[in-house]
Amino acid sequence: MDFYEKTEKKLDKIIDSVNEFGAKTKLVQNVDPKNVFFDNQEFLQLMNISKRTSQMWRDTGFIGFSQLGNKIYYRLEDIQNLLKENYNPKKL
After folding, report:
1. Closest Cα partner for 26 from 38, 15, 34, 18?
2. How would DSSP label each residue in the chain?
3. Cα(22)–Cα(82) distance, rounded to whole angstroms?
4. What are 34's strand-pairing partners?
């Protein structure tokens, strides 16, 4: 691996960290969940899923979304509802 490949990998890691930090920052702000939107990349990182999985969830109506041109956005409220609806409580 040459210098440029190593540098590129380091830059990719930094970009990923910055994106993850941005997504987490949105979560901790005291904002109405109806007014917080995540783009598709942030959603993929937040849920730790693939692009194909997010596409399937949209196609089947598993999660609500908005689309502007080629950009996909998800409301925080919809993400929270998805998690609540699929929550399995601990069995005693």
Report:
1. 38
2. --HHHHHHHHHHHHHHHHHHHHHHHHHHS---GGG-EEEHHHHHHHHT--HHHHHHHHHTTSS--EEETTEEEEEHHHHHHHHHHT--PPP-
3. 21
4. none
- pLDDT value of position 2: 72
Q: How many CB atoms lie within 10 A of CB 28?
A: 7
Q: pLDDT digits over 16-54, tens only?
A: 776 676 666 766 666 677 788 999 999 998 898 999 999
Q: Where are the domains of the chain?
A: 3-85
Q: Is the pTM of this model over 0.85?
A: no
Mean pLDDT of the chain: 84
Count the neighbouring beta carbons within 10 Å of the beta carbon of residue 76: 20
